[in-house]
Amino acid sequence: MLISRLAFLLPYEVKMLQASDAEAILILQKGHPNYHTYLLDHPVTKADILTDLTSLPDRSRAADKFYLGFYQDKKLIALVDIVLSFPDNLSAWLGLIMVDQALVKQGIGQTIIKALKHALKREGFKQLLAAPFLDEAMQNFFAQAGFEVQGKILLGNKADGTPVVGLLQQTSLTD
């Protein structure tokens, strides 16, 4: 239902991304090398992408994970990784939103977030959570989208043990 709602609300083709889309995902993500320095101790690889396609937080179900691609003229221009009913049944967790580097600052990300919030609200969710890294541009993006900072959160550790910290942010879907 989420995909069909988004496809209705957005001027893009929306589809669930799969392993066969890994090369297109890799090309899009390679346009954001700074993003990956927060998570990885190496440039993003196809193996990293394949892991991301199926990775889930504890206590969540594979059926609730949506790694979505947004296409314009058959080209992947944005992606979203979202887990429904996490950390509770009334919440959704936005793990990633990324827009093709050549199209950044054209409103595509904000348009996708707005549609995502509307679609999630229609499906009964009360809040959308995210934990972007401690990066000014990311913080500004989420603030513009109506997210409010709740505090710092440990997202995990890099392979070398370095902690990965983000700012837990929340936006209400009840307004």
UniProtKB/TrEMBL annotation:
Residues in N-acetyltransferase domain copies: 12-169
InterPro entries membership: Acyl_CoA_acyltransferase, GNAT_dom
Protein name as catalogued: Acetyltransferase (GNAT) family protein
Species classification: Bacteria, Bacillati, Bacillota, Bacilli, Lactobacillales
